[in-house]
Structures are given as C-alpha cells and as structure tokens.
C-alpha cells in the first residue's frame, strides 16, 4: 500500500535553499559535481558494507553512476547503484542538515551575496545544490538488501516541505531527477553535461557514464565499405581510477584541486597539497591538503574532522581523526593503507600500532609541508597563519615529540616591527637577540594595544630589546607548555624579576642598588599602608615613565591565566600582586614627601589601583576607584 506523507523542512534547510538559489547563481554547474560526488560516496559505502555481506550486491557488483538528460521534458537524472536509502534515511538525510553548530553558521551570514556564497561553499551544500537549477526534485531510492517494494519516492519544490511515499523499485541505489527551471534548460544537453563531468569528476574512482546512441548501418558503395550498425551503450566519461593511485607526474594541478573539492566540499582551491606513496616496513599512500580558508565551524568541538580512510583502495570511513592530531584538524585528505584489516573499526584504530605509525608519519609530513611553505613563500605562509595560526598554537601542549618543530612555525607580533600583524618567528627573534641576552622576552595582554603600550616594556624599549606581543586567548595556555626555544628560555616581562643579566651594565646596577637603599623607608611606609592588598612592595627595575606597576610573583598565576581559568568557570586561588614603585617618577617623589599619613595612604591606594587597571584592564570595584580619584583631584585643586 502506497503511503504518502508530507514533512516540513528543518528551518536551516529552508534558509540554505533560499541562500543557495540566490548566492551561488554565478557557479550553477557545481550542482552536478555535488550530486555525482554523493553518488560516488554511495558506491564506496556499498563496496565497504559488501565486504561482510556479499548479498548486498544483489548479483550486480559493477558499481557506477549514470547521467542522462531529456531535452523535451527539461530534466537531468543522476542515477547510482550504490548503498541507497531507507524511508527513515530519506527523511533524515533529505530533510535536515545533520551538522553541529548549523544555527551558529546562519547567524554569521551577512546578507552580502558574494561573501555569503563563500561561507556556503565552506559549509558544503551537497544534495540541496540541486535546487540551484531545478524547481522540483524527485528522488527514487532503495536501500541495498531491502525488497523491491520497500523503495521510497521523495519529492520537493524546495519551498517549505517535501513528500515521502513508499514505491516499488527493482534495482538498489538512488535516482535523482531534476526538473529544470525554465531558464536552466541548457543543462538538459548531453554535450553540456559531458563537459561538466570531465571538468569536475575525472578523479572519481567510480565510472560516471552517459549513454552514447548507436549508429545505423551504412551500405557499401563503389568507394566505401559497408559499416555495420552499432548499438547504443553506456560509456564512462571519466578516467574512473582512484586519483591517489596514479603517479604524481600523471596528475595535473587542476585534477588535484578538483579532487580536493570532491572530498572537502569546499569551493575554493587548496593552499597546497602533498601526494606520497610509501613502501617498505609500512605500505600506504597519503594525499594531504591544506585549505586556503578556515571552515566556518573550525572552533566547534563537535565538528567532525580527520582523513578519509581507505584500505587497499576500498573506502572504509570518513573523518578518521585517529590519523591527525587535533591541532592539525584543518588538514583534509585521505590515507590508503595496505597494512590495516578491511573490517577495521574506530575502536580498533584507537590503539593499533599501524595507526600510531601512520599518525606519526602524516603529522611529520604536514609539518614538513608548512616548514617548506614558510621558507619558500613567506606571503603565502602568512595567509595560512591568518586562517589557522590559533589552531596550530595548540600543538606544543598536544604534541610533545614535535614541540620544537611546531614552535618554529608559530608567528607573533613584536616590538621590532611595530605592527599588530603576527609575522615574527621565534627563529627571527633569536637571530636578533642582543649580545649577552639569554632569554626570549614576551608579554601576554588582553589586546595588541594593551601589550604594545604596557608599562612593563619601558626599560626594555629604552635598551632596544625586542619583546614578543601576545594577545590571543590561547597565548597564555601556549606559553605554559612552550617554555623554551632553541635552548633559550621564554620569560614574561610581567613576572617577578626581569632577569636582564648581562644586559645591565655595572653603572646601572650600582645606581639601582643605591636607589633601593635610599627608598627603603618609602617601600616600608607603602607596605604598611596597603597591608595585605599586596604581597610585597619593591623598587622597580622595569619602569622609566610610569609611577608604579604590579607583577606576578615567582610561581604565581599570571593575570591572563587567572582570566582564562575564571572564563572556564574554575575556582582560582586568591593571589596578591607584587607592587613595584618607580621612585624617580614625580608622583612617587611627591608621595615620599607626604607627611600626612591619611593622604599618604590615599595616594598609595590610588597608585595601586592605577597599576591594577593597567595590568588587568578592569577593577573589582571601579566606582570606589573613581570616588578616590575625584577626591584626590579636588584636594589638589584646593
């Protein structure tokens, strides 16, 4: 009994359909690439399932995709004999977008069609791209291994809903018929379709076939021999050999780029790629791509990532994250192993020696690609860093074995360039270090401006010592795991002692010691006045133009780490800062001369609050600070 039901599209599907029809108009032909790509995936999935259940082939093991057009009706049909879908599968896959963070994606859309089409390209449109050229789409499908009368008919005009009906279909697989819009009839042309298949689908390992009409018999004449009639037949339009199994020299850049779009559903060309066949102790082929643009959901923790896994050219699984560390989750591509079992599962991959060896090898391969890019094309590497730099910063914490290599790929803003652009490597910094300098100095702050203008840099600026300026949320986390580079320790300019070592000359040291001795009384008075608001008061070695600053004591959490922990909802032990005074500053000299103890206490409090504001960017009680400052201003006016 045929049972027809009408279902409403998920809200996001409606939005996506509307956006695609309007935003992707300039590149309409990609609908065929997306649908052929899906059909090839269905064939791959059947091949894998049939390894353990040969009956799924139903006596037909020749997997293929067939494309046909009907000019009179204005239709294009894409048919495969792959895995097919059940009724539930149809409702799930053709009515919803099963992507985590989808709602967030739609919030990011700007309404500017050219910008949005880029975003949609990163989102991956798949089946719904049919509606770019069609005003009605009909899908007839039957899952492999199910009976003929368990097939399903799905139909929609791409508005708000779709219908699902149980039908009979003798062959397994999926047949999608596009009823083209009046102004898209150009696609109901064999020659047009053939050229698109050749352009986009040459690399697909399943034959993509079109029907070639037969020719009538030609009778013999005096000058020519008789030619027998030929029957029409389905002919493959693509090479139909897995691209990664071919020799590198036989694959063009265009083919590599199209294959990237096939596996990633990205619209842009990749930034770079690496194709390698390894033989010996382990046998595998890897084809790895670095995208040009970060995917929209790169920071979504539920986002699927990883490589496509093939075993002896048989597709096994998508998103095999076991082969790529999390900090390289932007890498796209595949790995084809000869050493893993065909029935491998995610659980088996988890603690498999072959997996570990392959992960190590492909990680090194990606780091090598990036090192080569950084060395040979600084501009291109900078565009990679802009897109993926923050993710790469997770590396030193995650990948101890490659910590130094990852550190070499990191880029930072620096006082040397005076720009906000993060384009200075640790190797650049080490090369420019002053004679006698043994540490790499850095500062972490809430923003680039806060870092660049921090009072903590004053003495270093005076001595022309370079400081790395860090202002991304992940930087404090990074620095906790990256404590040295090239044998040089990384040292925060906001911590305890600046440790300038040989960079201080004897005269400076002597003057500093003299100043400390002369200021002992002032330091004691300020400490007594502030009490337990500070852990210690001392004379500064880092300030030249600012009256005072606060620093984190040895072994204590930095301000940035405290903020990070609090943002994550964790309890942070209370810590009191070390308060450093600059006795040569007029305000501190004025404080030193103040005889009225109440006024002295108010000045000390004001300087402390100023220093805390400068360091943290906010105060626990800003209104109390404003009240105190107004009070002091009024007193000075009198």
From TrEMBL:
Keyword Amino-acid biosynthesis carried by entry: no
Pfam families tied to this protein: HATPase_c_3 (PF13589), HSP90 (PF00183)
Location(s), subcellular: Cytoplasm
Complexes and interactors: Homodimer.
Keywords carried by this UniProt record: ATP-binding, Chaperone, Cytoplasm, Nucleotide-binding, Stress response
InterPro entries listed in its UniProt record: HATPase_C_sf, HATPase_dom, Heat_shock_protein_90_CS, HSP90_C, Hsp90_fam, Hsp90_N, Ribosomal_Su5_D2-typ_SF
Residues of the Histidine kinase/HSP90-like ATPase domain: 27-184
A as annotated region, ranges: 1-346
Database matches in SUPFAM superfamilies: ATPase domain of HSP90 chaperone/DNA topoisomerase II/histidine kinase (SSF55874), HSP90 C-terminal domain (SSF110942), Ribosomal protein S5 domain 2-like (SSF54211)
Gene3D superfamilies the UniProt entry points to: 3.30.230.80, 3.40.50.11260, Heat shock protein 90, C-terminal domain (1.20.120.790), Histidine kinase-like ATPase, C-terminal domain (3.30.565.10)
Descriptive protein name: Chaperone protein HtpG
Function noted in UniProt: Molecular chaperone. Has ATPase activity.
Signal sequence segment: none
An example molecular function term from Gene Ontology annotations: ATP-dependent protein folding chaperone
Annotated GO CC locations: cytoplasm
């Amino acid at each position: 009994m045929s049972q027809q039901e009408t279902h409403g599209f998920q809200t996001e599907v409606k939005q996506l359909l509307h956006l695609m029809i309007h935003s992707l108009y300039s590149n309409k032909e990609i609908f065929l690439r997306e649908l052929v790509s899906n059909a090839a995936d269905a064939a791959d999935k059947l091949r894998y399932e049939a390894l353990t259940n040969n009956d799924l082939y139903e006596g037909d093991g020749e997997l293929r995709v067939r494309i046909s057009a009907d000019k009179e009706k204005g239709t294009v049909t894409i048919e495969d004999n792959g895995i097919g879908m059940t009724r539930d599968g149809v409702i799930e896959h053709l009515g919803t977008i099963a992507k985590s963070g989808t709602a967030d994606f739609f919030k990011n859309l700007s309404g500017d069609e050219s910008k949005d089409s880029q975003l949609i390209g990163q989102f991956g449109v798949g089946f719904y791209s049919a509606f770019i050229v069609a005003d009605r789409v009909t899908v007839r499908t039957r899952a492999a291994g199910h009976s003929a009368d368990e097939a399903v008919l799905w139909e929609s005009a791409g508005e708000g809903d779709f219908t699902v009906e149980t039908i009979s279909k003798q062959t397994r697989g999926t047949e999608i018929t596009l009823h083209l819009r009046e102004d898209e009839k150009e696609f109901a042309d064999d020659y047009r379709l053939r050229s698109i298949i050749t352009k986009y689908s040459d690399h697909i390992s399943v034959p993509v076939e079109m029907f070639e009409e037969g020719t009538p018999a030609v009778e013999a004449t005096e000058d020519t021999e008789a030619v027998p009639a030929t029957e029409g037949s389905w002919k493959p339009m693509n090479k139909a050999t897995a691209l990664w199994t071919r020799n590198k020299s036989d694959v063009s850049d265009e083919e590599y780029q199209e294959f990237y779009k096939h596996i990633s559903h990205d619209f842009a060309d990749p930034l770079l790629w690496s194709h390698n066949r390894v033989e010996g102790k382990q046998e595998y082929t890897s084809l790895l791509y670095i995208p040009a643009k970060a995917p929209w959901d790169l920071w979504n923790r539920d986002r699927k990532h990883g490589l496509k896994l093939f075993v002896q050219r048989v597709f096994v699984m998508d998103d095999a994250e076991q082969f790529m560390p999390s900090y390289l989750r932007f890498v796209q591509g595949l790995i084809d192993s000869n050493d893993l079992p065909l029935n491998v599962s995610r659980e088996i991959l988890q603690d498999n020696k072959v997996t570990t060896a392959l992960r190590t090898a492909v990680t090194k391969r990606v780091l090598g690609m990036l090192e080569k890019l950084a060395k040979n094309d600084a501009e291109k590497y900078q565009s990679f860093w802009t897109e993926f730099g923050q993710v790469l910063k997770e590396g030193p914490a995650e990948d101890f074995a490659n910590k130094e290599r990852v550190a070499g790929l990191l880029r930072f803003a620096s006082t040397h360039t005076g720009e906000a652009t993060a384009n200075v490597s640790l190797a650049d910094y080490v090369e420019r270090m002053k004679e006698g300098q043994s540490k790499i100095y850095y500062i972490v702050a809430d923003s680039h401006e806060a870092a660049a203008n921090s009072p903590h840099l004053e003495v270093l600026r005076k001595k022309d010592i370079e400081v790395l300026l860090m202002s991304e949320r992940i930087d404090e986390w990074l620095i906790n795991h990256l404590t040295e580079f090239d044998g040089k320790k990384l040292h925060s300019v906001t911590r305890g002692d600046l440790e300038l070592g040989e960079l201080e000359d004897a005269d400076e040291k002597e003057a500093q010691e003299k100043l400390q001795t002369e200021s002992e009384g002032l330091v004691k008075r300020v400490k007594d006045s502030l009490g337990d608001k500070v852990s210690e008061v001392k004379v500064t070695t880092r300030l030249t133009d600012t009256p005072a600053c606060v620093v984190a004591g040895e072994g204590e959490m930095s301000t940035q780490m405290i903020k990070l922990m609090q943002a994550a909802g964790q309890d942070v032990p209370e810590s009191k800062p070390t308060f450093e005074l600059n006795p040569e500053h007029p305000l501190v000299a004025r404080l030193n001369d103040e005889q009225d103890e109440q006024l002295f206490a108010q000045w000390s409090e004001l300087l402390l609050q100023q220093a805390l504001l400068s360091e943290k960017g906010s105060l626990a009680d800003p209104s109390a600070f404003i009240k105190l400052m107004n009070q002091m201003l009024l007193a000075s006016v009198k």
